[in-house]
Design goal:
homodimer; 211 residues; mainly alpha; 11 helices; elongated; DNA-binding
Chain lengths: 211, 211
DNA sequence: ATCTGACAGTAAACGGGAATCACCCAGGGC
DNA sequence: GCCCTGGGTGATTCCCGTTTACTGTCAGAT
């Protein structure tokens, strides 16, 4: 009996998942755990177990834990970038573009709270700067897409205060502020999310941009 | 020779630091390390070494690591609360009170980035809700002090959009947004901090509050 | 003077994280 | 048939927060 329990090495070993197909498996499993349990909850061992592979195997495909999770973040932000690019080609007023982009941004954050925290609330120390590069670049691309319309508005002399640069940063930050607080402090007595987003958008757009 | 090296237990042991005096030593050492190296860098062992005591000894005075660091955060927020209380008694316009409180808030954040992150950017999962209670209560007190003038403004019918509740939350969030981003992403090309704070305050106040 | 017990220490260990090590094996080109 | 290589493995290392079981010290009651 006890002898029968000892499996031969062959069947105990997971067969090769040739090439980047295993990489995809890992990302899928990691994403599921990460979304369900957050950064700390998504341990290397859990991810490896979910894939059915030893924890060491993950290091074949990714340099370290952060690389795995940042890759998930990267993919998510690619969606956000796609949204922004699409919006920037809509045939509408620059202000309306800005409004829609910020609205999409906040909804994205609330829909993907764990990912949002990972990418936009990450303490600068937890994950080193170089590691964040890929994600950071995409974030910059999103911001560039967003600051295009802002520059238009600034060029039209419709900025009530600040430069195109600072106005864009402040608009972004205001939206980041409300969603990051709602996400990280869910136990507070928040007004309804829709109202918060609405008031933020209205307030900040009217405050910074002239009619 | 080798015999001489073996110290008697007596001298190897750190004498008692009677009562809450040792507690203060621990907090002081922990704060120094925490400010220099952040949450993850401030390990129990490092703090204990700095005090000159075994790591176990910290558990005589604090339930766990979070208690130590949250205590540091608590003390810091007490200062912020004191500022807000002082400002709320100044003989100025309610709007001016709000402006000064938010300005003080942002400067506090930039002056104490690690503490700010610990208290206001803490992912909800990292530190359990009950543990945060003491700090959270103080944060609420600050917010109450801040929302007093806002309610005045709302009562005077000067709110352009939203309720007193949502307006207060949005104003706070806008300020939180800019400082939290500047703190956690210091490598981005930010406009000068003074300008960002100025534009944020002007924009959001003009956007939400009528003359 | 001595006993006692609460208090403030300690060393050692535990369980669990990330990451690394030395090794192993199936498959494809030669 | 041989060998190289890439995807695997278990054992190990190091560090973390925390727990356990023990020890020295001292104030105060007996």
């Amino acid at each position: 009996m006890t002898v029968a329990l000892k499996k031969p090495t062959r069947s105990a070993r997971k067969p090769k998942g040739d090439g980047h197909m295993r990489r995809g498996e890992i990302l899928a499993a990691a994403e599921k755990i990460f979304i369900a349990e957050g950064y700390a909850g998504a341990t290397i061992r859990k991810i490896a177990d979910a894939v059915g592979v030893s924890s060491t195997a993950l290091y074949m495909h990714f340099r370290d834990k952060d690389q795995i999770l940042l890759e998930i973040g990267r993919e998510a932000i690619e969606q956000l970038l796609a949204i922004n690019v699409a919006l920037s080609h809509e045939p509408v007023d620059a202000v309306e573009k800005v409004r829609r982009m910020l609205d999409a941004y906040m909804r994205f954050a609330l829909d993907n709270p764990n990912t949002y925290q990972l990418v936009f609330c990450g303490s600068s120390e937890a994950i080193s700067v170089e590691k964040q590069q890929a994600v950071s670049d995409l974030g910059d691309a999103c911001f560039d897409e967003f600051s295009g319309p802002i520059r238009e508005i600034a060029a039209a002399g419709r900025l009530k205060t600040g430069t195109a640069e600072s106005a864009a940063q402040v608009l972004w930050a205001a939206c980041h502020g409300i969603v990051s607080l709602v996400i990280t402090k869910p136990s507070r007595n928040w007004a309804p999310h829709e109202e918060l987003m609405q008031v933020t958008l209205d307030g900040v757009l009217h405050g910074l941009i002239a009619e």
